[in-house]
């Protein structure tokens, strides 16, 4: 079985587990009866349908890769056993651009830290630090561009949203 | 109330301002690759909570149809679609620019968009009140069947695997059921988080799936823009250009309008179909892809007309046919306005005000996109890395200000990451959003139908209208799995790719 096929099957397995979990949690909520449906009935049906669709998806990907592999094997050297044939699509990794993927992961982690820190540090300070990190990470700006850009952007955002549009923003321990 | 009363609402200074702000922001996000209209609408949604519903919807709609205009500018000058529906305009629009006809391409694109958009608004104005009257005969089973049918059509029209699209729709139905049960008040899947008792916020989920995920993907793949540097002159098309474009624009307008009505088809499919039709009926199909003006005029008219068409199922049946419309439905519910057959009678100011504002918005857009095209070219040259902090900060502020809660921000970030993975794994987010917004309505209609029939599922097949909708849904589920249909579909797909 090719790498991509295995990846797809793991994914189908993940969805089956999700569907089963939804079914169990919905059952615990009470399904009621068809005459008088309970709060769990609708999500239970959704979970069951997800399980069925995940199995169909698993079957589809398995069949498709077997078919592709057989066709490829026949085209290459007449073999019919396609188990060891790895197609071009199969060898393409999910995160082909590793540096870019790492940057994307760093942004997600930074966003989470920013969100959690915002209520403690306040909007201005946390936003300044977050923008500084982004300017450093995304395009490696010079230090004075980072400092000026981060301070200016966070102050400008604060003025527009908090002062002008009167949007609620976290205040934090320092009072701003 | 009629369209003239609508104009008296839309022409107030405040509403003109909201309309202008909407179409300006729409064009801006359309021009800038990396942020689409749905993300922009969700970011600005919290700002609209303090203004009257009619003004809020005027502004949010303006963003949506404004982006259709802006997206073509980027397609023509950079060969990158500013937003998804302008993909097809890259083919001939950019070729026209390379042959020194950038001005004409931009001109005919704006004019085609204007005509297509206006035709669709006329269609909306005429068809919506009649459809709303028909929809009044819908009972609980008919509504449930209609929503089932809508979701199946949406997944049938999905660009990738239909099974995956259905899976996404089912996940959306589950997400929509999180929160307090409407009948018994039982908390469902809240994990003890107080903020989830009203359900998982639709806006943070949309911001994550369409805003944050797009930023992450662009960071990973690094957008490189090679902006057209030649002089843009002669924006107004010549007599021959007009003659070549008149047919494609009118056909594109019609195609777009009908595709707008279908769940999931939307502006992207409308543009592709219009392009295929023009290529097929053209006397010189070999010129398509080499800078044929018909390849710009038709799809641009179609994608704008699709937005007008998409308003009909939303405003009369509460069925959103695109993610943008799903967001608008969520917005209507937040403003306390029930969309559906009674909207036109209960809130005529909103219906006619919004329709009238769309005429005005289209005129504003043609002014913004023809004389001010130079401004958008300058904006296009802003490097993407300067936009990243702005988009992310706006998303965080937008989600936080919904209920002054950090939980919404976390939800947005989590769905941003999930959306990024979905894009990598080729799962479409649109069915999830539409199912999520329809889930409470579907569940309510489903439970009421079962109560009505004392637990008999056949109620969905024993009432004629409901039965027709259910049969359509079942046929659409079965058809793609029949081998001869699948082969025909694959063949057609290959032909369109060629």
Question: How is this structure best described in words?
Answer:
The complex is a heterodimer of chains A (176) and B (498). Chain A is mostly helical. About 6% of the residues of chain A have low confidence. Chain A is 74% helix and 0% strand. Chain B has one domain. Chain B is 74% helix and 1% strand. Chain B contains 22 helices and two strands. In chain B, strand 1 and strand 2 form a beta hairpin. The radius of gyration of chain B is 22 Å and the shape is globular. The chains are: A mainly alpha (176), B mainly alpha (498). Chains A and B meet through helix 1, helix 2, helix 4, helix 5 and helix 6 of A and helix 8, helix 9, helix 17, helix 18 and helix 19 of B.
Task: Record the SSE blueprint.
The complex is a heterodimer of chains A (176) and B (498).
Chain A: H1 3-29, H2 41-77, H3 88-91, H4 98-121, H5 123-139, H6 143-164
Chain B: H1 3-10, H2 13-31, H3 37-48, H4 53-78, H5 89-98, H6 102-135, H7 140-156, H8 162-176, E1 179-180, E2 187-188, H9 202-221, H10 239-261, H11 266-281, H12 294-317, H13 323-334, H14 343-346, H15 348-369, H16 373-380, H17 384-403, H18 406-425, H19 430-453, H20 459-462, H21 464-478, H22 483-497
Antiparallel strand pairs in B: 1-2
Helix pairs in contact in B: 1-15, 2-4, 2-15, 3-4, 3-9, 3-13, 3-17, 4-5, 4-6, 4-12, 4-13, 4-15, 4-16, 5-6, 5-12, 6-10, 6-12, 6-15, 7-8, 7-19, 7-21, 8-19, 9-17, 9-18, 10-11, 10-12, 11-12, 13-19, 17-18
């Amino acid at each position: 079985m090719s790498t991509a096929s295995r990846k797809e099957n793991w994914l189908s397995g993940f969805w089956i587990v999700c569907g089963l979990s939804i079914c169990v949690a919905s059952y615990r909520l009470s399904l009621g009866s068809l005459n008088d449906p309970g709060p769990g009935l609708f999500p239970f049906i959704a979970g069951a349908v997800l399980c069925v669709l995940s199995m169909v998806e698993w079957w589809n990907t398995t069949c498709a890769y077997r078919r592709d592999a057989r066709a490829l094997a026949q085209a290459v050297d007449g073999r019919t056993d396609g188990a060891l044939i790895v197609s071009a699509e199969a060898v393409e990794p999910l995160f082909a651009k590793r540096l870019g993927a790492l940057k994307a992961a760093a942004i997600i982690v930074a966003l989470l830290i920013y969100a959690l820190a915002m209520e403690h540090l306040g909007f201005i300070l946390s936003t300044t630090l977050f923008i500084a990190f982004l300017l450093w990470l995304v395009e490696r700006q010079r230090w004075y561009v980072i400092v000026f850009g981060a301070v200016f952007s966070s102050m400008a955002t604060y003025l527009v949203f908090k002062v002008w549009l009167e949007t609620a923003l976290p205040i934090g321990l320092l009072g701003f | 109330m009629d369209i003239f009363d609508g104009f008296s609402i839309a022409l107030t200074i405040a509403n003109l301002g909201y309309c202008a702000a909407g179409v300006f922001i729409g064009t801006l996000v359309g021009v800038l690759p990396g942020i689409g209209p749905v993300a922009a609408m969700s970011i600005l949604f919290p700002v609209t909570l303090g203004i009257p519903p009619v003004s809020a919807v005027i502004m949010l709609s303006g963003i949506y149809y404004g982006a259709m205009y802006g997206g073509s500018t980027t397609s023509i000058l950079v060969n990158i679609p500013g937003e998804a529906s302008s993909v097809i305009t890259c083919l001939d629009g950019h070729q026209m620019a390379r042959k020194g006809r950038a001005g004409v391409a931009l001109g005919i694109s704006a004019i085609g968009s204007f005509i297509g958009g206006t035709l669709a608004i006329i269609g909306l104005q005429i068809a919506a009140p009649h459809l709303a009257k028909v929809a009044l005969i819908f009972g609980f089973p008919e509504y449930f069947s209609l929503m089932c049918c809508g979701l199946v059509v949406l997944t049938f029209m999905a660009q990738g695997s239909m099974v995956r699209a259905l899976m996404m729709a089912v996940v959306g139905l589950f997400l929509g059921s999180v929160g307090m049960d409407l009948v018994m008040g039982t908390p469902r899947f809240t994990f003890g988080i107080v903020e989830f008792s009203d359900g998982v916020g639709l806006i943070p989920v949309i911001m994550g799936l369409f805003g944050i995920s797009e930023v992450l993907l662009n960071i990973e793949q690094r957008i490189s823009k090679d902006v057209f540097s030649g002089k843009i002159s002669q924006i107004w098309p010549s007599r021959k250009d007009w003659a070549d474009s008149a047919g494609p624009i009118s056909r594109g307008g019609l195609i777009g309008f009908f595709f707008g009505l279908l769940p999931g088809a939307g502006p992207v499919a409308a543009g592709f179909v219009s392009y295929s039709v023009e290529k097929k009926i053209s006397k010189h199909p070999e010129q398509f892809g080499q800078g044929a003006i018909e390849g710009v005029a038709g799809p641009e008219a179609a994608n704008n007309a699709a937005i007008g068409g998409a308003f009909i199922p939303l405003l009369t049946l509460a069925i959103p046919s695109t993610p943008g419309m799903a967001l608008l439905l969520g917005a209507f519910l937040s403003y306390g306005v029930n969309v559906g057959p009674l909207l036109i009678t209960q809130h005529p100011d909103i219906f006619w005000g919004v329709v009238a504002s769309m005429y005005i918005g289209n005129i504003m857009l043609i002014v913004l996109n023809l004389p001010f095209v130079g401004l958008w070219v300058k904006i296009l040259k802003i490097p993407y890395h300067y936009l990243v902090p702005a988009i992310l900060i706006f998303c965080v502020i937008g989600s936080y200000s919904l209920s002054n809660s950090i939980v919404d921000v976390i939800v947005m970030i989590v769905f941003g990451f999930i959306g990024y993975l979905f894009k990598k794994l080729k799962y479409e987010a649109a069915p999830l959003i539409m199912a999520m917004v329809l889930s409470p309505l579907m569940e309510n209609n489903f439970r009421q139908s079962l109560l009505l029939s004392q637990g008999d599922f056949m109620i969905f097949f024993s009432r004629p209208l409901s039965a027709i909708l259910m049969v359509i849904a079942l046929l659409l589920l079965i058809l793609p799995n029949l081998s001869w249909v699948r082969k025909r579909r694959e063949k057609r797909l290959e032909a369109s790719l060629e």
